[in-house]
């Protein structure tokens, strides 16, 4: 069976991909610095705690493991924090990815799956967003990933046997249906998690950041995708490369969105709790609307989502929130 190195595999998205890789029988090595990840989240394979900044240590692990492919999730992910601490994002997301690519180059590992983001598009001129739209990130988080996409393209031009897939995630949410893994950050900023933690009483109220956007109800609109549909797309992309597929870039979303207010109402319905909500000013770095055109990944990779249902997404997240293991 093929071997896959997963960076950030103890994190929220990485751990769901590790779960699916494990269920399919792949041999897995996870490397994670556990800055936001949890060892309990790694359901399959071996975990080595190391930071991508420590290039020599990572390189030794890679040399010993001899992976067929690398899936790269390790990153900092908060838009608002990236505006305040841009260097953290360029270091963790851009510079550490260069370290990893140098290792791939030196160890001759030719298959790479990259976690990119819808934030590379910034405030798109048209919707839904297609992969060939211009990249105009409006925050350092999006820029840190857009830089990597450019680096990957140039690296691939120089190294003809290298093959990569860049997946541009829209808003990932939800948790494992069996409640084994889910999102667990110290200070979560994501809308659904904040709403559910407010329902649980961990926060006094939920703020709706911005009600003066040019949208029907004035709040931002996002394309929420269940983490297990997103994880499945990674396996599909990996197998596409193993079967001779060419390097490519795909959006990962459902192709329709919900407003922040609609999400809040669904969170109240699922939890049965009418938690306090307050309208607040806009948050820095937020585009008004982000919706994916997912035609390309459906047609080219044959990816078919199974959980396109906001209620299901929030139910699995709520189940996790109530029964968290870590
Ligand atoms: N929001 C609130 N209150 C909160 C939290 C969020 O109103 O307490 C709003 C935000 O202002 C935004 C929307 O809910 O309008 C979604 O915010 P999230 O923080 O949940 O997600 P983002 O859209 O900012 O970012 C996420 C990922 C990024 C990715 C982006 C692409 O974190 O990696 O989606 O859409 F790039």
UniProtKB/TrEMBL annotation:
Database matches in Pfam families: Epimerase
Top-level taxon in the UniProt lineage: Bacteria
Gene Ontology BP annotations: galactose catabolic process via UDP-galactose, Leloir pathway
UniProt GO molecular function: UDP-glucose 4-epimerase activity
Start and end residues of each NAD-dependent epimerase/dehydratase domain: 4-253
Assigned EC number: 5.1.3.2
Necessary cofactors: NAD(+)
Catalytic activity field: UDP-alpha-D-glucose = UDP-alpha-D-galactose
Keyword set, alphabetical order: Carbohydrate metabolism, Isomerase, NAD
InterPro entries: Epimerase_deHydtase, NAD(P)-bd_dom_sf, UDP_G4E
Pathway: Carbohydrate metabolism; galactose metabolism
Entry-linked NCBIfam families: galE
Similarity-based family: Belongs to the NAD(P)-dependent epimerase/dehydratase family.
PANTHER family: UDP-ARABINOSE 4-EPIMERASE 1 (PTHR43725:SF53), UDP-GLUCOSE 4-EPIMERASE (PTHR43725)
Summary of subunit composition and partner proteins: Homodimer.
Protein name: UDP-glucose 4-epimerase
